[in-house]
TrEMBL record:
Pfam families: MipZ (PF09140)
Descriptive protein name: Division plane positioning ATPase MipZ
Listed InterPro entries: DNA_Partitioning_ATPase (IPR050678), MipZ (IPR015223), P-loop_NTPase (IPR027417)
Top-rank taxon, per record: Bacteria
Keywords: Plasmid
PANTHER family in UniProt: COBQ_COBB_MIND_PARA NUCLEOTIDE BINDING DOMAIN-CONTAINING PROTEIN, P-LOOP CONTAINING NUCLEOSIDE TRIPHOSPHATE HYDROLASE
CDD domains (alphabetical): ParAB_family
Origin organism lineage: Bacteria, Pseudomonadati, Pseudomonadota, Alphaproteobacteria, Rhodobacterales
Amino acid sequence: MAHIIVVGNEKGGSGKSTTSMHVATALARMGHRVGALDLDVRQRSFGRYLENRMAYLKRKGLDLPTPILGTLGEGSDPLSPAMEALEPDCDFILLDCPGSHTRLSQIAHTLADTLVTPMNDSFIDFDLLARMSPEGKVLGPSIYAEMVWAARQMRAEAGAGPIDWLVLRNRLGTQQMHNKRKVGTALTALSKRIGFRVAPGFSERVIFRELFPRGLTLLDLRDIGTQNLSMSNIAARQELRDLVAELGLPGVSVDF
């Protein structure tokens, strides 16, 4: 059985597609067989990222490890046939969910062995996880956390294993330390209450926007002739290494 990784958050602009691409490609580069599905049928940022990669590699005559991009089926259940097609050939299948509430996203969360929720480090994104009083007190879970709770219940009723839920703090700023501490304190309190782990994600870096048109990741730069990486690129590679290690995926030893 393939291990299912779901990258989800009901808010756009949190870095889901960047996270999905880098995690999936990192696993492929480590020798694992990785399948990928983009469940955002309108924007398809993750799917476009992978298509850009395949086109660039073909144009340049390069052979770099690449996740297998699956295709959603048709009808009332487009996800099941897509999963069935990928599973025999994959150790991991990564599902990138849209930044909105959809039926496909709901189903995907019930399949998650590992759930990754990238969020911008602000109380605007925090509001999807929990409701807060004006004084900063956590009042209870919000819409996205309630959806994850429902997915956990469905998995328990079906006899499936628990969901390992990791919340990533993306775009952690070097300034505004007071706000960063407040968000961190609130996340730590909420994590104990509703059951997720918290880890640093990716900082805001220009390199991520530059890589998308070619379908490349931070780990591909030396393969395309970039020998002298900037300090920012080296720091970003370390963030990716830390993220993959924090996921604690079965059979994965971080060696890049």
